[in-house]
Design brief:
- Helix content is 27%, strand content 29%.
- It contains 3 helices and 8 strands; from the N terminus they run βββαββαβαββ.
- It has a 4-stranded antiparallel beta sheet with strand order 4-5-3-6. A two-stranded antiparallel ribbon has the order 1-2.
Length: 124
């Protein structure tokens, strides 16, 4: 199990252990129209918004981000909702850090090694 540590908890000042079942990943996947110049700009702007929010592109219309729980997930969903393009379909998935560890990946018809989860919670 992945265990992440923060420096202090609220009461005793000791380390806080965060369960891999509480830590979350957000996957935003979308299908946006790009037939007109206005639609292409809207799709580009939405991609740039996701990057500005700390998401990483895993595939062209799939963006992934780590978050530290349900409250932060809900905050990102609200931000995404405020920045939706006028047309198209956007899906937001959440899954636990433990589920992320179990993703099976293939590349060029070969199974890839499991991707390692971050070893620590980075605060910016």
């Amino acid at each position: 199990m992945t265990t992440l540590h923060t420096q202090h908890n609220g009461e005793g000042g000791g380390p806080t252990h965060l369960s891999a079942y509480r830590l979350m990943w957000i996957l935003v996947t979308f299908d946006l129209p790009v037939e007109t110049k206005k639609q292409r700009k809207a799709a580009h702007d939405f991609r740039m918004f996701l990057l500005d929010q700390g998401f990483e592109m895993s595939q062209f219309s799939n963006y992934l981000r780590f978050c530290n729980g349900k409250e932060q997930f809900d905050a990102y969903v609200r931000r995404i909702e405020r920045n939706l393009p006028e047309r198209g379909h956007v899906f937001v998935f959440q899954f636990t850090d433990r589920q992320y560890e179990n993703i099976v990946r293939f590349s060029d018809q070969s199974r890839r090694q499991a991707q390692k989860n971050p070893g620590q919670l980075a605060l910016f």
